[in-house]
Design goal:
It is an enzyme of class 2 (transferase). The chain has about 475 residues and is of the alpha/beta class. Helix content is about 25%, strand content about 35%. A hairpin with a 2-residue loop joins β10 (about 225-230) and β11 (about 230-235).
Length: about 475
Amino acid sequence: MIIPLVLSGGSGTRLWPASREARPKQFLPLFGDRSTFQSTLLRFKGDSSFGRPIIMTNRDHRFLVSEQLSELGIEADIVLELTRRDSGPAIAAGAHLARKLHGSEVIIVVVAADHMIDNPDVFSQACKTAAEAAKNGLIVTFGITPDHPSAAYGYLAPGPEIDGSEVRILERFVEKPDTQNAEIFIAQGYLWNSGNFVFSPDVLLQEYAKQDPETEMAAGEAVDNATPDLNFLILDDSAFSKTAAKSIDYAVMEKTSLAAVLPVHFGWSDVGSWNSVWALSPQDGQHNVLKGPVVLSDARNNLVVSDKLLTAVVGVEDLAIIATEDAVLVAKREDATALKRLVGKIRQTFPNIAELGARVHRPWGSYQSLDVGERYQVKRIVVKPGGQLSLQKHHHRSEHWVVVRGTAKVTLDAVQRMVHENESIYIPIGAVHRLENPGKIDIELIEVQTGSYLGEDDIIRLEDVYNRNSESTN
């Protein structure tokens, strides 16, 4: 049995403004109708060689993970990190949990939730080939043939084949060299490290303990003392926060004598930039990629994406132009490093735009701010079937709700009533209230807030079915 261990905790700043802290790139439908997270899980669905996946994510993304799994009809063990500690501790905790749930005989395949694979069947066979080597005590990584010298990836020096198989001894592991050394490595036949690893949990944890026994032990304690919360498992933060924040590459792979590499050709991309999205998407005759309401004239080699606004582009080349509802990016398509620096500056001056975006997703649905004034705010609220906001009250604002689609069940000071399409209801300051969707279609309503303070932290949560009583969001 091979257990997929899916790492899904990244923030995806190189794909801003589409990717935000609250909804990073792995949850976006960048290619077709499915997110890369969903595409990752679908590679294992229906293949009896793979068992129930383990998803490592953070608390902020737990409901996104749960919702997107539900859309696929896939069940998984969803593990929440309250403190982000990089891939090493996450993989160590996942290995401890897999061993606890399934025993020492299982094999783990570590995959990232934001990678794309062109040929899932070849990927699946690669996992099975690597699993045979992992049964013999090796830690196997997948090696990708480089197509350019990149400083964004680790490099692998493959050695002789092991017992006549495709798996090779890994003679050297180099973590993200500069471009000059990358050129040298490519000339010497090095491969890119894809970030996928296949191993026995016992072997990985033994090797981790040799290099960093404190982290390996703390990861185990975090799993042993983890607490269930709805359909999630929360790692014990007092233990997990003691782990050293290192990637698995630095923590284990550069140092272990048990490393092996399987050269693979399944069409891999880490979708690490807008340039990657451009390269992986269908292009027109001028090598432009267009998504949304976009019109071009005398333009070549551009990626132009618009959520809603008509975006007109004239006489430019090699740009990424991304227009969302609250931000517009114009950048050189290939300069991902500069974009990461830019997002750092935006986070200092416009933190909400860097982290949340115009549409904020919640376990019950989403809301979007449409207009804000000194003493008022207008929001569009969507509540999914079966969804309900917390039972709450506000000290500084009143609210007017106008239902424009569906039928809402509203609790107002212990009195319940149904509010139908084209009807409205007024929520006074201090009134205890709740909004629910008992129907089978989304509720859509317009909320007008008025008052002296309109911040999201003016929510006194009294009861919540999603166990968010310590959080200050709807």
